[in-house]
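## tool: complex_structure
## caller: assistant
## args:
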Amino acid sequence: MVTTPEPLPRLRLRVSAAAETSLRSGHPWLFADSIRDQNRPGSPGELAVVYDRRNRFLALGLFDPESPIRLRVLEAGKPRKLDAAWWQERLERACALRRPLFDDQTTGFRWLHGENDGWPGLVLDRYADTLVLKLYTLAWLPRLSHLLDLFRAQFRPARIVLRLSRNLQPAALQHFSRSDGDILVGPPLEGPVLFHESGLLFEADVIRGQKTGFFLDQRENRRQIESLARGRRVLNAFSFSGGFSLYAARGGAAALTDLDISAHALEGARRNFALNQSHPLVSACAHHCVQADAFDWLSQNPSPRFDLVILDPPSLARREAERAGAIRAYQRLAALGIRALAPGGILLACSCSAHVSAPEFFQTIRRAAAQSGRPSLELGTATEPPDHPATFPEAHYLKAIFLHFEPPPPSEGPF
Ligand code: SAH
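## result:
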């Protein structure tokens, strides 16, 4: 007699009182060490239900036995059936948020920003007709074909590329035969993908590049830089592929220096400049690349030669233990950046370290400005752009502060 295996009972979790409170308040993560009881072992991507002490439904989420974030919440408060309509609605909600933000001048942006859009541990970026799906939990891998069906129907992309956070890569290969950079849908890629941001043309290395190939999260700050750059000599430190520089050039910068430790990044910057030569202000702007450690280069080149300095280093605190060191490094970097500014210059200092809070970072840069002994005016601060919403404390990571040194006195007339 042929028997079919009994379906496994639903994976059920009970958790600490603190975790109950956290889930009830809408936090999207349940950590492994908060689990008090589990009816059976679970596998990656299974749906698990969390019940409170009185056996009431608390949350439903994706289980990941390999991650300290053991459950990522999909629904909390009321039980819901995750049927086709539920997934479609979840996708549509995120799309509705982005559609009014972008026209055909901006074809690179984030469609899905993980937990903040109700897609925990999953990012979906658009680069023209290529989608890049980046996963931060194994839990999505058994659901990949479902995701691809959804994304294909919604976006009709020419291509979908899979990116995997580094810590997932061994298990993804071993258990799911998936590798970072796999093309899941569409033809192989011959080179980088071209896309538009605010009318400028950029390339993204979606297969191997950092993040998903481009720092889409700095778009709004780049737009600010365009509006501040006219006539200025600009230093773009930690330039990567020259994102800020292209905006500064189009904004009428007199000269541009891209400074990065990576020759590969600077080659990308040169190609991005070449792609935008049809714009007269870009082609008129002198563009230099310097391959060096930005801290060393700024220390060794003390003369104030720039009118606009952009500092956008990689995360300087990858864990909590590195926080204090990172704050010292941000302050030192800001001091070096200010020293490189000619009178009347503008500084943009950025941080993408989630472990350094916005108030801490802004205080650090203000302290560096005060210690420089030069009068300055704060032009403004910024955090995440609208296609990277942050809906829970750990999701905040991006900070930017603009300071104008020796600002001109306020004008007296009506103009
Ligand atoms: N501002 C960029 C993103 C910067 S990413 C944009 O808008 O696209 C950080 C960059 O810093 C990377 O390109 C990396 O190569 C570079 N980098 C890392 N450490 C560095 C160092 N010590 N000195 C100079 N560049 C560095």
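## assistant note: Residues 35 and 331 are 40 Å apart (CA to CA). The longest helix spans residues 323-339. Handing back to user.
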